[in-house]
Design a protein that fits this description.
The protein has one domain (22-161): Beta Barrel (Porin), CATH 2.40.160. The protein is mostly beta strands. It has one helix spanning 5-17; strands at 26-41, 44-59, 63-72, 79-88, 97-109, 112-128, 131-144, 147-161. Strand 4 and strand 5 form a beta hairpin. Strands 1-2-3-4-5-6-7-8 form an 8-stranded antiparallel barrel. 8% of the residues lie in helices and 69% in strands.
Length: 162
Amino acid sequence: MRITRGTLACLLTLVIVHPAPSSAQVRWIAGGNMGLSIATGGGSTDAGFHIGPMGEVVFNKQFAVGSEFDINTQPGTPVEWANYFKAYFLVPGSKIKPYADGGFGLVFLTGGPYFDLRFGGGANFPVANKLYIPADLQLGPVFITGFTRFVIIFRSGIRYEI
């Protein structure tokens, strides 16, 4: 049997356009973060409290896109608007949801907004129906004019699936 280009193109189109199974539903998660942030660079190391709201959209139970707005208590009171991509790892038989994430953001600090990169991961631990407590580690550079600061954030918080 010979397959022509037209037949192959038609089959490929059907595969791409075919509706995804019910597991492809979109879910929203809202919550907040709080923890300890440590920033070093530019001749100093500072620790501070880290707090802020977050939200994300989960696609196909495995991938998410999110955003958060965080305030830190280091000198200059850095405020960060971070955006990230997240991959959840499916663990058969477990209700714990481990993940890895990475993204970019803007840090508003004396002297401008500065660009940052952030990478990390953690796990969401279920405490009730659709309610989770995360354990999370984030780290990455903040590119400030003339030097780079490196930030490490140990945090937890709350997550609720809407």
